[in-house]
Amino acid sequence: MESSKVIHALYNDDEVLLDAVKAVKEEHHHIEEVFCPFPVHGLDKAMGIAPTRLAITAFMYGITGLSIAIWMTNYMMIQDWPQDIGGKPSFSWIENMPAFVPILFELTVFFAAHLMVITFYMRSRIWPFKEAENPDPRTTDDHFLMEIPVKESAVEELTTLLTKTGAVEINVVDKH
Amino acid sequence: MYQFSSKLKIASLILIVVGALGIGYGFLSAPSSLEEAKEMMAHQASHGDSHDTANHDNKDNHEQKHANKEVHGHDANSTDKHAEHVYHQLKNRPWSAFYVALFFFLGISLLVLAFYAAQRVAQSGWSVVLFRVMEAITANLVPTSIIMVLVILSASVFHWNHMFSWMAEGTFDPTSDNYDAIVDGKSWWINIPGWTIRGIVYLLLWNAYRWFIRKNSIAEDTANDGYKTYKKNYNASVIFLVVFMLTETMMSWDWIMGLDPHWFSTLFGWYVLASLLVSALTVIAFVTIYLRSKGALPGVNDSHIHDLAKFMFGFSVFWTYLWFAQFMLIWYANIPEETTYFAARFNEYKLPFLSMLVMNFVFPILLLINSDFKSIPWFVIIGGLVILGGHYIDIYVMVMPGTVGGQGAFGLPELGGLLFFLGIFIYTVFSAFEKASPVPKGNPFLEESEHFHYYNIEHRGEGSEDHH
To answer: What are the TM regions of this chain, as residue ranges (chain A) (predicted)?
Structure first.
């Protein structure tokens, strides 16, 4: 779509917003973005957003952490300098394994949690000093904003549709 | 209303009969005299000597069995002693096989009851449509309790079995050859009258709550009294949960830890609880999935199955946590009086001991970690079968080393016990389920429960339009 304008439709109720999203989708308009002050249950489904794969990455990070912990305990305690510490069997990794389990567990959780959070930041493009991409400050307080790219010729038609869905304010702005 | 089909009824009766035959075979094939036991040992020896060596390695287990031994003449050369030792273990086997299955089914019914009480106390919104399923499962508490009373009486009052080595004559008598000073020090707790009375009291308390809550839960349906009955049930459940935590802990000391009277562990009660709780949740899921497939549970959707599977997953991990907390502390400090417990299990029960970790932890965690899988009945059943098998083995490994030592096996007596109690379970549960409305109409959270929906589940074969 080579449109240069976007419509900003503001709502002041999440239920109204949800119905509006469904109505707009039904008319086969592409919704660029919806800004909400809080999570609205079912919004992602209504917009047709693909499910997140963050949990899958966390699982793989956890396996990474577990592997590193196994390698580390084995290298340090068994291979590099196998001392007799209080009679613990340091002949092979598996014989001394129960003593390593707390480390294995913690590193698994550590890697899964932290790398998943970092992944989330990267995928959502959030970092310190990042410039806010907020089209209207009211969306952080009590308003919901739906952004729809639109061609000059379709502005009229879309405005009518959005008014019908209960938008409290409709602005046509230049695409940023 | 659900109709307990005659097909299922006959199947349950067949299970009971076949199981009883297996149990009977177990008792008939146990040696009735020392000579017979020697013959059996000679027969065994031809299979290889592994049992013997394992037995001798394990000194404490040996020692413990001494308490088992009644006073026969003490000509005491070591082979005779050994033969006598094995004789008692072989005599214990049919009892232990029966006891493992009995405890497994009794414990599951009890923990379903406790979970049900917890759901009432938590005023949970999701599980109300499953209340009648849980109530029906607790019906199995009645027959298993009656059988348990018989086992308690036959062990203590009549001395028909010797699973509990401390019950042997002379254990508390300093002049006797059987005298055991360590056990004598605990005789203020483990003595026959106390043990018998406590056991019967636990069973009475549990059954009293079950009887009360079942009656009043049905009364709730038509009460229409401004939720007075509902509040009464709430209060009764609060009281029961307190009573349950106390009695469950003591029950695990009496009925399971008492099999190894020289050994003790502080978190044992929770460990037994975790094992039975995860099995109980699996059984709730199984019965729910079965009844839903028969169309008997109109309010139950995939989200309820998903929640049950989440509990199965979570409590599998919880069980593993407690298992490891108990094992690792003992392994790490390696104090002989504590370590013998695991030495006995690791030397003679290595395969079940290690395989149960795979079945109770590795398998469920990998299968049920995926959110989509948790709402697919087929996956839940596969995971559940492994969990139930794993926790049967868990109970088996708790009981057998203390009672039959190196003579443990899984054969007809064990299988018979399982089938027998499975038959009773099916019969009591489904005949209880058909006696009440499958929907607890009077519960204030019923509406919420019927519309329960976990956000990322697409219901298969159900309309999801009314949810968002």
So the answer is: 54-77, 97-121
